[in-house]
């Protein structure tokens, strides 16, 4: 049996144990409660920002929390002596948590506007936006012993990844924002709610860049994992 399906099942069990699903449901209900009383024209403006912001909560904070839970329970060291490879361990986290991000985005959008949105674009934008958040949250948490030590410095990469909201809102229309891997996914999310169009080249950029960025960060994530989580114990490639 392939190790990845086993890792996925294990990851889903751990997320239930850490109450991630409860926290995600609370987040969705909170955003729905905020959006429903708002007039439809204002709600249409707010929805892309709320969906994008929720990717930061689920993507960045949840995976960092998972790292700290696993450090506290001393389960990370067992990975070095198991058949599970690091890339399978991390990919399982990326798949399950990006899937949770997509689910929340669809729930919020459906609860607030029915089916009056472009589902494929919302799913694509949410999944691609979650990936850089997840990788950054994972790497940023590894050097720290506790969430308290991590929190302030951890806000730095999150702030950078959330910065495209300023470009999307027209506050700073600088081309430099296109260097951030969350710029394209935010455009996709906005397009899913009919706020902007998306051309062929924009779609290609929005899909390819977050994937390439996340893939390029994986070797760094592995090195940091071995150094900070396993204390040099080593892990299969």
From TrEMBL:
Transmembrane spans: 20-38, 50-69, 90-111, 117-138, 150-170, 203-221
Family annotation (InterPro entries): FLQE3_permease
Record's keyword annotation contains Membrane: yes
Keyword Lyase carried by entry: no
Protein name per the record: Multidrug ABC transporter permease
Keywords: Membrane, Transmembrane, Transmembrane helix
Pfam families: FLQE3_permease
